[in-house]
Request: fold
Amino acid sequence: MLVGLWASSVFAAVPADFPPPSRGHWVSDATGKISSATVSAIDDLATEVDGSGVGQLAVLVVDTTSGKAPRQFATEVFNGWGVGHALANDGVLLFVALGDHKSEIILGRGSKVTSSMTDAVTRTDLVANFKRGQTDQGLLAAARSLANLMHAHPGSGASASTDDNHGVGPNRFTQASSPVSDDPLAPFLRGEARFPETSPRSWVVDPQEVLPSSARARLTVAVSDLSSSNRGRIFYLVVKRSAALPDLARLGAALARQVGPLAKTPVAVIAWDVAGESLSITLPPEHVATAHDRQALAVLQNQLSDRISAARVEGLAEAGPKVGEVLMHRLPPRPVDEVLSEGLTRHRTGLLVGGGFSVFGGLFGLRLWNRRRRRICENCHQPRELLGEDEEDAHLSSAEQAEERVGSVNYDVWWCGRCQDVLVLDYTAMFSRYDACPRCDRRTRSSTATTLENATEYSEGLVQVDEGVDRIVNIS
Reply:
């Protein structure tokens, strides 16, 4: 036993066991469980953050802290690595111990990011994804959120040296204003210039005139239907960046802020960088309020980006209506089976104690939600209108009206005024004394049973069944 304790103390992980990544890299994965694609994506994010001068972002993934308090462990790593630009102390360390199910985000004193902001990142990006077993997605989502926060709240950098950087990453420090100072797009990002708008005749913003006029006209036509319906506005922002800066997502957000107050309807921006062949979609904040929304948006961006890379103008033209659908009807919700599965897993103990009632209530609520959820016309893709009881009878047969009168089946009638099309959905009552009539197959037959002779040890008895018209059926 003493030998075992000695061995465990010798091989217990300590912060000094984890050296910083090599210069130009920002992620250290001691578990080997993070994919190379995720590591590469975070490296690119952190390189951009460092180059912008807003701070430094580093990531360490271990299996366990061997019993040491995670925050103390992560703080020692932060100090040992020297995360942050020299003298600015503007670093951020994302630390995860997978085996311990613990995470910490350590902030340098010069960082303007606050603990309340990082707490939201932990809940929304890390915990939500890790509970679903999506480690890579959670880590990348958290890194992206932290990078966005660092851009929105750049570190002080007031006393930072231009050539003395003892932290991770390249041995240099760039002042926050210099990376974008020479880029022609920088004034739009800093608010020193307005994007050249040509709406309402055109919805394409092309400040560098990257696209020919014929291509801009085609893109305008692609989103004109949404504009005509007055239910939203889609703007294309086409740029050709000379470097990774200015950030494409921030450019899209800047355009949305400029045109939003004038549009008076929800606005989305499809930003495409011709040089880097990268895409960023900006939606109203309420459209990306949850971790699932952000994940669904990332999936959509990847799909559209592949199409645009293959055929630029055609892909952008196809992207407009698809983003318009999202603008009007939101991103796809989480699948019902996924939500139920997560709920059952999360509340397994409670379900074992009183599971029957919970499951019944959940199914009833799901049935009600499914019945009342918005229906979209398959022809014109516009929302249908649910008709009231008085209006729906005109679209129901006499047999269907009879079922509704006896309460055995409820019918919902969804009307599309644009296509003059009707959708009739039937919902059989969960509890009803009516069953299907053998002649018309409608649930309008009721029956009552009366015992005429009780069964005995030697006789099966006699039952009278009254079926709507008082017919007697003997059961022997």
Summary: The CA atoms of residues 412 and 447 lie 27 Å apart. The chain is about 40% helix and 15% strand. Residues 186-329 form a domain with the Diaminopimelate Epimerase; Chain A, domain 1 fold (CATH 3.10.310.50).
